[in-house]
Write a structure and sequence with these properties.
Two copies of one chain form a homodimer.
Chain A (H helix, E strand, L loop, with lengths): L5 E5 L7 H14 L4 E6 L1 H8 L3 H4 L2 E5 L10 H6 L5 H10 L5 E4 L3 H12 L9 E6 L7 E4 L9 H19 L5 E5 L10 H12 L6 E6 L11 E3 L2 H26 L3 H9 L1 H11 L7 E4 L4 E4 L6 H16 L2 H16 L1
Parallel strand pairs in A: 1-2, 1-4, 2-3, 4-11, 6-9, 7-8, 7-9
Antiparallel strand pairs in A: 5-6, 5-10, 10-11
Chain lengths: 343, 343
Amino acid sequence: MTDSSFIAVDAMGGDKGLAVMLAGVARARHRFPDMRFLLVGDETAIREGLQSHPNLTANSEIVHAPEVVGSSEKAGVALRRAKKTSMGIAIDMVKQGRAGAAVSSGNTGALMAMAKLSLRMLPGIDRPALAAMLPTLGDNDVVVLDLGANTECDARNLIQFAVMGAAYARTNMDLASPRVALLNIGSEDQKGTDEIRDAAAALREATHLPLTFTGFIEGDRLSRGEVDVIVCDGFSGNIALKTAEGTARFVADLLKRAFRSSIRSKIGFLISKPATELLRHHLDPNIHNGAVFLGLNGIVVKSHGGATELGVATAIAAAAKMVRDDLTRRISEDLGNFEAKVA
Amino acid sequence: MTDSSFIAVDAMGGDKGLAVMLAGVARARHRFPDMRFLLVGDETAIREGLQSHPNLTANSEIVHAPEVVGSSEKAGVALRRAKKTSMGIAIDMVKQGRAGAAVSSGNTGALMAMAKLSLRMLPGIDRPALAAMLPTLGDNDVVVLDLGANTECDARNLIQFAVMGAAYARTNMDLASPRVALLNIGSEDQKGTDEIRDAAAALREATHLPLTFTGFIEGDRLSRGEVDVIVCDGFSGNIALKTAEGTARFVADLLKRAFRSSIRSKIGFLISKPATELLRHHLDPNIHNGAVFLGLNGIVVKSHGGATELGVATAIAAAAKMVRDDLTRRISEDLGNFEAKVA
């Protein structure tokens, strides 16, 4: 039996260090007072760090890990010493049933490799996919997957991602039949690669699934709020996600420059500060932090390497919600239905 | 001998119709008073349209074309009636040497297919690539290619794109040795597909080329102004370009919303209007309009389907500059040097 009241946190991963991880956990605890934490990492350092968070001490246990995965360490190298690292041990807590989810801000490739090897795939899934929620102009965020776990994907992978992404959207956004689209370079049927066209053909047929397949979507419509799930291979997804992040920052930088261009603009900026703060809030990646590896026997959440205290808390909150919603079981059920119908 | 004082314009292509195309040509003529135009399309309609542009009449000739390529027509279908369409005849003007370049706002796939079949590839080039200049935070724009002409590319294609993109950057931005990067999902050597890693290995060796290969670049750094040329397959390039466009619009829409959120914000907006206008100007796609198919025996410029009068003028100005700079010859020379050294 999994103890779903615990979340295992890789306390050592991430660019900002232990102090930010612990501050993020403490912040998450305020939102989920019943949630308890397994803090995985160097015992002495964590014990020392906890002195700044007396409230956290009662709600957490320390699990010692002597080693840390490097931020640019190759996945294969990290994998060989998984059992000694804070990342590997955090995942192992999920495998052992001591935690409902693991959260790490460390190296994505290593996290994926360790999670896959330790937790294994759900029946019917060939590969896990990294999924995240992105902001839109609509009422809901949009689930995008895969964001980089799989550089190349065949039609079967894409179809599985569609089913998993839809299950995630149903669970996370309470949608009965999420609108699912495939990312492509045009909206016409003949556009794109064979893999994408084959996946589209299969999804068009799969009317028994709890999702509404809407066809192809292009990169310029990702944030329009027209669909709930966008499916792509990990290469395109990573390019799209990072281009969106970079462009948002680019526009914000241009805006800053423009506001500094004259005294008049500076005054206008000061007066409209609440408006630009609203924008900043909406675009803050820390408010949308927490990508999840879908398709595994357990929940593993990837927090951004540069996540702040708020970002870490958001990722933990996302993990807590997935545990509470029993996401893994929901995905399994949808997959079972899909396999049963196509078999 | 090519008459490089003429530009052939597909007067019928584009979502906004003949009137906008002609207004764009007239606007371009103001910038290049020596430039003359072959206006290709329905003779009666063009003659009628020219009544609004008396100054243009003296600088242009009408070339009648009875048919128009549809905006969602399949390339194969359009190709069969190329010789009757305004797009096909505009390209044929370049082939016949009656114009130095062709410009069309029509269907990209058809334009690419017709240009390739009619003009043929430069020696040493397997496939053309669609290249455009994107705005950055740096002093220069950045050349990005391929933007959608080739859904899948091997290492050899990517290397050729790098050489062609660098020649374009040298010509267009007067750079001696443009900084060239490959778009990838990480900056470490082992990241990405085999094609990208193989292309990187070859470009690292190619120190005799007039370019500086800087390695991999991720989607979040496209607009930072750190490189002059970004090379990718047409699928990723299209996703990146459109995601950047969509995100810029998304942020602008959020900003508009934010400014409308209170009286105070509205006042701030009015005061800082010069600043936001500056931003709008910088992001206006019509100011960056005009993608070019590199690798052909001749210059073919693709103007955005929704280009305004300003956009059309920008695309024509870009074509005029390429003709003046003798871009095709410059690319041929660089390719010759590259082939000579690797052979």
